[in-house]
User: Fold 4Fe-4S binding protein from Neiella litorisoli.
Amino acid sequence: MAFSITNACIGCNACKLVCPQKAIVSGANGYAIASHRCNECVGHHADPQCASICPIETAIVNAEHRALNPPGSLTGLPTERNVIAISLLEQRLSNHTNHPPSHGEGHAR
Assistant:
């Protein structure tokens, strides 16, 4: 019945601060949820507090590995638009790192 934190987590610490069971732990590999402590906020809140405060989609998943904040749920962007935006960004970053400015390019004369 416990949740898990994925590698999408940015380590903002927000979930750790709001967890009523103190189930969020941090370690060398980032944040994790101690399954023996997590009760998904049953009896405390209507919604899991970790997911309610988490600013990152897909960072927290349930036992079936379904994101509590699925793609598009926080940004309001349809999933296909997220994929397009990320692809374009990755392409620009790839072009920038694969083709550094030539000598003198970008400098004022």
In short: The chain has two domains: 4-61, 72-101.
